[in-house]
Amino acid sequence: MLTALDRLGLEVKYLDRARAFYEDRLGLDPVDVSETAVTYTVGETSLVLRRPSGVPRGGLHTHFAFTTPADEYDDWLADFADLDPEEYTFGTYRSLYVDDPDDHCVEIGGIDDADGGNADANGTEGANGVDGSGLTGIFEVVLEVEELARAEAFYLALGFDVVDRGDERRRVRLRGPFDLELWEPQLGLADARGGVHLDLELAVADPDVAVEAVDEWVSDPVVVDSDDGVRRLRVRDPDCHLLTFTGR
Protein backbone atom coordinates (compact mmCIF):
# COMPACT_ATOMS: atom_id res chain seq x y z
CA MET A 1 0.00 0.00 0.00
CA LEU A 2 2.80 2.44 0.93
CA THR A 3 5.56 3.00 -1.59
CA ALA A 4 7.89 5.64 -0.11
CA LEU A 5 8.56 8.09 2.69
CA ASP A 6 8.00 11.39 0.89
CA ARG A 7 8.54 13.78 3.81
CA LEU A 8 9.82 13.89 7.36
CA GLY A 9 9.12 17.14 9.19
CA LEU A 10 11.08 18.20 12.30
CA GLU A 11 10.59 21.18 14.59
CA VAL A 12 13.60 23.41 15.35
CA LYS A 13 13.88 26.52 17.50
CA TYR A 14 16.27 28.53 15.35
CA LEU A 15 16.65 27.95 11.62
CA ASP A 16 20.14 29.45 11.37
CA ARG A 17 21.47 27.13 14.06
CA ALA A 18 19.72 24.10 12.57
CA ARG A 19 20.93 24.92 9.06
CA ALA A 20 24.52 25.15 10.28
CA PHE A 21 24.27 21.57 11.53
CA TYR A 22 22.43 20.04 8.58
CA GLU A 23 24.35 21.92 5.90
CA ASP A 24 27.84 22.40 7.37
CA ARG A 25 28.05 19.16 9.33
CA LEU A 26 25.88 16.84 7.22
CA GLY A 27 26.53 18.38 3.81
CA LEU A 28 22.87 18.80 2.80
CA ASP A 29 21.89 21.44 0.26
CA PRO A 30 18.62 23.35 0.75
CA VAL A 31 16.09 23.12 -2.04
CA ASP A 32 13.56 25.53 -0.53
CA VAL A 33 14.02 28.20 2.15
CA SER A 34 11.52 30.54 3.81
CA GLU A 35 11.48 32.58 7.01
CA THR A 36 9.98 29.64 8.91
CA ALA A 37 11.24 26.48 7.16
CA VAL A 38 13.99 24.92 5.11
CA THR A 39 13.72 21.78 2.97
CA TYR A 40 16.39 19.31 1.91
CA THR A 41 16.19 16.29 -0.39
CA VAL A 42 17.79 13.09 0.90
CA GLY A 43 17.31 10.25 -1.56
CA GLU A 44 13.58 10.07 -2.23
CA THR A 45 12.63 11.91 0.99
CA SER A 46 12.18 15.61 1.72
CA LEU A 47 13.54 16.55 5.14
CA VAL A 48 11.80 19.70 6.39
CA LEU A 49 12.98 21.76 9.38
CA ARG A 50 10.34 24.17 10.73
CA ARG A 51 10.11 26.81 13.40
CA PRO A 52 7.01 26.36 15.62
CA SER A 53 4.97 28.96 13.75
CA GLY A 54 2.13 26.95 12.25
CA VAL A 55 0.67 23.50 11.58
CA PRO A 56 2.09 20.98 10.90
CA ARG A 57 4.77 21.85 13.46
CA GLY A 58 7.09 18.91 12.85
CA GLY A 59 8.24 16.29 15.32
CA LEU A 60 9.99 16.97 18.61
CA HIS A 61 13.09 15.06 19.80
CA THR A 62 12.84 12.64 16.89
CA HIS A 63 15.21 9.72 16.35
CA PHE A 64 15.71 9.05 12.65
CA ALA A 65 18.42 7.42 10.56
CA PHE A 66 20.28 8.30 7.36
CA THR A 67 21.98 5.79 5.08
CA THR A 68 25.51 6.28 3.77
CA PRO A 69 27.78 3.84 1.85
CA ALA A 70 29.70 1.57 4.20
CA ASP A 71 33.04 2.72 2.82
CA GLU A 72 32.21 6.32 3.83
CA TYR A 73 31.10 5.47 7.35
CA ASP A 74 34.49 5.92 9.02
CA ASP A 75 34.77 9.40 7.49
CA TRP A 76 31.49 10.38 9.16
CA LEU A 77 32.69 8.90 12.43
CA ALA A 78 35.85 11.02 12.25
CA ASP A 79 33.93 14.15 11.24
CA PHE A 80 31.72 13.88 14.34
CA ALA A 81 34.49 13.00 16.79
CA ASP A 82 34.07 16.35 18.54
CA LEU A 83 30.46 15.42 19.40
CA ASP A 84 31.44 12.09 21.02
CA PRO A 85 29.15 9.95 18.88
CA GLU A 86 27.84 6.69 20.26
CA GLU A 87 28.34 3.71 17.96
CA TYR A 88 26.53 0.37 17.62
CA THR A 89 26.72 -2.61 15.27
CA PHE A 90 23.55 -4.19 13.89
CA GLY A 91 23.97 -7.37 11.92
CA THR A 92 25.95 -6.32 8.84
CA TYR A 93 26.18 -2.57 9.42
CA ARG A 94 27.45 0.03 11.89
CA SER A 95 25.64 3.15 13.03
CA LEU A 96 26.69 6.30 14.84
CA TYR A 97 24.40 8.52 16.86
CA VAL A 98 24.71 12.27 17.53
CA ASP A 99 22.24 14.88 18.76
CA ASP A 100 21.44 17.89 16.61
CA PRO A 101 21.05 21.36 18.24
CA ASP A 102 17.34 20.70 18.90
CA ASP A 103 17.85 17.31 20.56
CA HIS A 104 16.83 15.24 17.57
CA CYS A 105 18.87 12.03 17.59
CA VAL A 106 20.53 11.71 14.18
CA GLU A 107 21.74 8.24 13.23
CA ILE A 108 24.02 7.51 10.26
CA GLY A 109 24.20 3.88 9.16
CA GLY A 110 26.98 2.62 6.93
CA ILE A 111 25.01 0.30 4.68
CA ASP A 112 26.14 -1.53 1.56
CA ASP A 113 24.26 -3.21 -1.29
CA ALA A 114 21.91 -0.99 -3.26
CA ASP A 115 19.72 -4.04 -3.96
CA GLY A 116 19.73 -5.70 -0.57
CA GLY A 117 19.42 -3.16 2.16
CA ASN A 118 19.92 -2.65 5.85
CA ALA A 119 19.96 -5.40 8.43
CA ASP A 120 18.28 -5.05 11.78
CA ALA A 121 19.73 -6.10 15.10
CA ASN A 122 19.06 -9.75 14.21
CA GLY A 123 20.70 -9.49 10.80
CA THR A 124 17.40 -9.43 8.91
CA GLU A 125 17.63 -7.79 5.51
CA GLY A 126 15.81 -4.54 5.13
CA ALA A 127 14.22 -2.61 2.29
CA ASN A 128 16.61 0.27 1.91
CA GLY A 129 20.01 -0.12 0.32
CA VAL A 130 22.50 2.56 -0.63
CA ASP A 131 23.03 4.05 -4.05
CA GLY A 132 25.32 7.09 -4.38
CA SER A 133 27.55 8.87 -1.90
CA GLY A 134 27.13 11.10 1.13
CA LEU A 135 23.76 10.79 2.86
CA THR A 136 21.67 8.76 0.45
CA GLY A 137 18.32 8.33 2.17
CA ILE A 138 16.32 8.02 5.39
CA PHE A 139 15.84 4.39 6.37
CA GLU A 140 14.32 4.61 9.86
CA VAL A 141 12.00 6.82 11.90
CA VAL A 142 11.00 6.29 15.54
CA LEU A 143 7.61 7.34 16.92
CA GLU A 144 6.62 7.66 20.57
CA VAL A 145 3.24 6.04 21.21
CA GLU A 146 1.00 5.71 24.24
CA GLU A 147 -0.13 2.11 23.68
CA LEU A 148 2.16 -0.16 21.68
CA ALA A 149 -0.52 -2.67 20.69
CA ARG A 150 -2.86 0.02 19.35
CA ALA A 151 -0.12 1.77 17.37
CA GLU A 152 1.12 -1.54 15.98
CA ALA A 153 -2.37 -2.46 14.77
CA PHE A 154 -2.69 0.91 13.04
CA TYR A 155 0.55 0.59 11.08
CA LEU A 156 0.01 -3.09 10.29
CA ALA A 157 -3.24 -2.01 8.63
CA LEU A 158 -1.17 0.27 6.36
CA GLY A 159 0.95 -2.66 5.20
CA PHE A 160 3.96 -2.61 7.53
CA ASP A 161 5.28 -5.95 8.82
CA VAL A 162 6.75 -6.73 12.24
CA VAL A 163 10.43 -7.69 12.04
CA ASP A 164 11.61 -7.31 15.64
CA ARG A 165 10.29 -6.79 19.16
CA GLY A 166 12.08 -5.47 22.21
CA ASP A 167 13.02 -7.93 24.92
CA GLU A 168 14.19 -5.33 27.43
CA ARG A 169 12.37 -2.27 26.06
CA ARG A 170 8.76 -1.64 25.06
CA ARG A 171 9.23 -1.29 21.33
CA VAL A 172 8.37 -2.94 18.03
CA ARG A 173 10.17 -2.58 14.70
CA LEU A 174 8.07 -2.53 11.55
CA ARG A 175 9.20 -2.68 7.95
CA GLY A 176 7.66 -1.14 4.87
CA PRO A 177 9.21 1.27 2.37
CA PHE A 178 11.25 2.42 5.40
CA ASP A 179 11.74 1.03 8.90
CA LEU A 180 9.38 2.36 11.57
CA GLU A 181 9.99 1.80 15.27
CA LEU A 182 7.21 2.36 17.79
CA TRP A 183 8.27 3.04 21.38
CA GLU A 184 6.28 3.59 24.50
CA PRO A 185 7.85 6.50 26.46
CA GLN A 186 11.47 5.64 27.31
CA LEU A 187 15.08 6.34 26.44
CA GLY A 188 16.58 4.17 23.72
CA LEU A 189 20.10 3.66 22.40
CA ALA A 190 22.22 6.79 22.81
CA ASP A 191 19.44 8.13 25.06
CA ALA A 192 17.29 8.64 21.98
CA ARG A 193 13.57 9.27 22.33
CA GLY A 194 10.69 8.53 20.04
CA GLY A 195 9.43 11.55 18.17
CA VAL A 196 6.30 13.37 19.33
CA HIS A 197 3.68 14.62 16.80
CA LEU A 198 5.75 13.77 13.73
CA ASP A 199 4.82 15.06 10.29
CA LEU A 200 5.13 12.19 7.81
CA GLU A 201 4.10 12.25 4.16
CA LEU A 202 3.68 8.75 2.75
CA ALA A 203 3.45 7.91 -0.94
CA VAL A 204 0.60 5.49 -1.64
CA ALA A 205 -1.02 3.99 -4.71
CA ASP A 206 -4.45 5.31 -3.63
CA PRO A 207 -4.91 7.74 -0.70
CA ASP A 208 -8.57 6.77 -0.28
CA VAL A 209 -7.65 3.10 0.14
CA ALA A 210 -5.04 4.02 2.76
CA VAL A 211 -7.57 6.06 4.74
CA GLU A 212 -10.14 3.26 4.49
CA ALA A 213 -7.60 0.81 5.94
CA VAL A 214 -7.30 2.86 9.15
CA ASP A 215 -10.78 4.39 9.34
CA GLU A 216 -11.55 2.79 12.72
CA TRP A 217 -8.76 4.86 14.31
CA VAL A 218 -9.14 8.22 12.55
CA SER A 219 -11.78 10.88 12.01
CA ASP A 220 -12.68 12.23 8.60
CA PRO A 221 -9.55 12.95 6.54
CA VAL A 222 -8.64 16.46 5.46
CA VAL A 223 -8.14 17.03 1.74
CA VAL A 224 -4.85 18.88 1.21
CA ASP A 225 -5.07 21.49 -1.54
CA SER A 226 -2.22 21.42 -4.03
CA ASP A 227 -1.30 22.92 -7.38
CA ASP A 228 0.17 19.72 -8.83
CA GLY A 229 -3.10 17.82 -9.24
CA VAL A 230 -2.00 15.08 -6.83
CA ARG A 231 -4.59 13.82 -4.35
CA ARG A 232 -3.47 14.16 -0.73
CA LEU A 233 -5.44 13.13 2.34
CA ARG A 234 -4.29 14.02 5.86
CA VAL A 235 -5.15 12.19 9.08
CA ARG A 236 -3.80 11.90 12.61
CA ASP A 237 -2.90 8.50 13.96
CA PRO A 238 -4.05 7.47 17.49
CA ASP A 239 -0.99 9.22 18.99
CA CYS A 240 -1.55 12.49 17.08
CA HIS A 241 1.24 11.95 14.55
CA LEU A 242 0.22 13.72 11.34
CA LEU A 243 0.14 11.48 8.26
CA THR A 244 -0.39 12.73 4.72
CA PHE A 245 -1.21 10.06 2.14
CA THR A 246 -0.04 11.21 -1.29
CA GLY A 247 -1.16 9.42 -4.44
CA ARG A 248 1.63 8.44 -6.80
From TrEMBL:
Residue ranges annotated for the VOC domain, each copy included:
4-111, 137-248
Among SUPFAM superfamilies, the record links this protein to: Glyoxalase/Bleomycin resistance protein/Dihydroxybiphenyl dioxygenase
Looking up CDD domains in the UniProt record yields: VOC
Keyword flag Oxidoreductase: yes
Keywords assigned: Dioxygenase, Oxidoreductase
Q: Which Gene3D superfamilies match?
A: 2,3-Dihydroxybiphenyl 1,2-Dioxygenase, domain 1
What would be one Pfam family of this protein? Glyoxalase
Q: Which organism is it from?
A: Halogranum amylolyticum
Molecular-function annotations in GO? dioxygenase activity
- PROSITE patterns from the xrefs? VOC
Keyword Phosphoprotein in the entry? The reply is no
Name the record gives this protein = Catechol-2,3-dioxygenase
Source species, domain of life? Archaea
